[in-house]
Amino acid sequence: MNKKIFQLDTKTLHQIQDALYETCGIHLTDTKQTMIQNRINVLLKDSICANIHSFDDLFCAIKNNPQIRQSFINNFTTNKTDLFRESYHFDDMLNRTLIPLLQNNESINIFCSASSSGEEPYSIAATCMYAKNIYQSHSTIKIIATDIDTNMLNLAKKGEYTLDLRLNKIPDWVTLDNYFDILKTTPHNTMYLRAKKSLKDMITFRQLNLFSKSYPFSNNEFDMIFCRNVLIYFKQSDQEKILAKLHNILKVGGTLYLGHSEDILGLSSQFDRLGNKIFIKNSESLMGIF
Predict the structure, then answer these.
(1) Model pTM?
(2) CATH architecture of structural domain 3-76
């Protein structure tokens, strides 16, 4: 394979940016050229790309070969996540959102819209399990966790993690062995964990592209939606479209949790702010906004 053929020039860089945007909505600027070059190099080492000998071959394959198109997407997703990341959202679940639902034994539906390798939905499930025990509730709790990256979804379904307690702060209320099998502990406070079946049974993992024109859910379906640290990879106009679709599938009075650097943008009148990127839906679903 001639490496020079795959060296990015300005034209090819823009073609890759365009292909990525068209397939999944991820928007990368020209400042990301080195990262784009590196991830294309990784993609081309995959055995499924053995018959690709030029960028023209690659763009044709992305368009016509579903396997290569998915691998292209997987190579450009960012998957930084931890158990109980941004823990104030789990505190809010315990101290506010879950209380009336559990006390009334209501069915609870939660959407985790960018689940990556699964730490976030398992953290949500553990929080629900802990609160359900406190209130001796009979609520049925269902969590739908989605991601566009099929490699990450496969990891999430396994639910196996390495936890460095020196780097990852776990809330005081979390007794890890209530929710995870402790496979191994090292002298340096590193733990190898596997999510218990009781957690896994609460979660359904599915592939979903947030850039899609519509989502396979009903209006007012969810009590809570987690959409954290993923909007930042979309253009602002596309962020607002995603937020509008999330608004539609969230119940009035339901809670939307965003990442620390994200905001509700043009939908501010449709939500009440509680601080810490916590938003409460205050109006019925929006129509004709896409």
Answers:
(1) 0.93
(2) Orthogonal Bundle (1.10)
